[in-house]
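debug: dumping io for the single-chain case to check the tokenizer round-trip. Nothing else runs in this session.
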Amino acid sequence: MGTHLITGAGSGIGAAVAQRLLARGEELWLLARDAVRAKELADQFPGAHAIVGDLARPEKLSFALGQQPLPDRIDSLQHIAGVIELGAVGDLPVKAWQRQLAANLVAPAELTRLLLPLVRIAKGDVVFVNSGAGLDAHANWSAYAASKHGLKALADSLRAEEHGNGVRVTSVYPGRTATPMQESTHRQEGKEYDPSRWIDPESVATAILTAIDLPRDAELKDVVVRPGR
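debug: decoded output
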């Protein structure tokens, strides 16, 4: 039985991964932004541990985690949470940039820094759920894409640094996936949302589980998942 710490477990891809791991008897530690959300996650995933840390305030994560029990080891650290605010470069205010960079890039970097010793103990995996926008930026996606391009750089650097410690690092780049975040994106784009057109979160969860379940003689570095219909 492995021990897994997951951000973004409340819905979408994160919920699919958490449910799959829980069903096979793994130990889950789920990060929540506040105590209310932590209680909701504990109810949603009976037996899981819910801990509080606000990804919107990465500078506070060290203090927050220092006040709570943590696992003795982490077999996989999965960064799945994210935020998106679309807008043209000429229109997007600085706070929109700051919110997305904080939650999508700085918080994963800081959370990894704080928990890396526990991942090293397990010789475990760090998984960054990136985005197609982390490989190719389009009009009105500048801030979100910049945060995800940065996340790719974080993952690539971490992989090179931790290879000798037995830590594997995987970036997963899903295309449009049928999640609440995708519904919000469609609203921002002024488009009708039809979840049947997009990837099922379960399919992305399968890609993530394949990466962490892979025998230790191999490592999946970059996994690109695109809609098949």
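debug: round-trip ok. The mean pLDDT is 96.
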